[in-house]
Amino acid sequence: MTNKAEPKPDLVWMDNQRWRLLQHWLSSDDDRIPFYPAWPELLLQLLQSELQGGKPVQNTQPVYDTAYANWLIWAETQTALPAPPKFSLSQYRSICNSCSSWCCSFLSVPLKQPTEFKDIDYIRYCLNFEGTQVAITETGWSLLVKTTCSHLRDNQCSIYQQPERPKLCRYYPEQDCYYRKTIAQPNNTQGYLRLAQSEFELMAGLFHFQDHGQLLPLPDIASIKAYVEQQLAASDYG
Question: pTM value?
Fold first, then answer.
């Protein structure tokens, strides 16, 4: 902080204008910061904004002009960025624009992991209703209902940033979207299996019970998936 003669590229002095730029880039519906850019990208984005847009606010240079000048020289030499993060800074604010709104088109209801026959019977009952599926992971089971949120308009939320928007939606981690990885890619996600009624019935051979009706532990997801695929292939062949 006190070494003015040898400023380092890992320190950037933030004035009011730069801080406002940073807030604008990272703002979200619920005022959280679930994503933060890699350091080199942050420096280049900040530099490009100042060079391309001029200096929107005059006389807001950082206190140490020498450090600022050295930082500009260093930043201009950074022509090659490292491997980009999962979502770049420029993509952050529009991450959901090209999405099919899977989170607003499926209702996911947690299910008790079956431990006895009545649990399996309840799942079979639910799957009799059109548009329902059961999702199985190593950490739990859930019921998926194909439906649409009443606030969805053109694949976007019509009450975004409004008080009536549920907190569950406000705080959903969109950068690591569970629906994008699972619903959009049925049964292609490791450790995840999604079954409709007819496919769930193919699991019957995996259910074994003790004398008092308790369900014996099921195999892991990979084994269940392989078993169901084997049963599907056999039924298709027949």
Answer: 0.59
Q: How far apart are CA 227 and CA 6, in angstroms?
A: 64
**Cα–Cα distance measured from residue 104 to residue 149, given in angstroms and rounded to the nearest whole number:** 5
Strands (E) located in 119-191: 132-137, 141-146, 152-153, 156-157
How many percent of the chain have pLDDT more than 90?
A: 32
Closest of 22, 58, 24 to residue 41, by C-alpha? 22
Per-residue pLDDT tens over the stretch 190-220? 888 999 999 999 998 999 998 877 999 999 9
Residue 50, Cβ neighbours under 10 Å: how many? 16
First to last CA, the chain: 76
Q: What's the pLDDT at 15?
A: 75
Tokens encoding 95: 């991450």
Q: Measured in whole angstroms, how far is the alpha carbon of residue 61 from the centre of its chain?
A: 38
Q: In this structure, what token pair is assigned to residue 163?
A: 């008080």
* 37 to 78, 80, 179: CA distances (angstroms): 16, 16, 23
Q: Provide the 10 A C-beta neighbour count for residue 134.
A: 22
Q: What is the dihedral of CA 23, 28, 30, 36, to 10 degrees?
A: -70
63: nearest Cα among 10, 16, 9, 21: 16
142's tokens? 């859930």
Nearest to 102 by CA among 139, 135, 145: 145
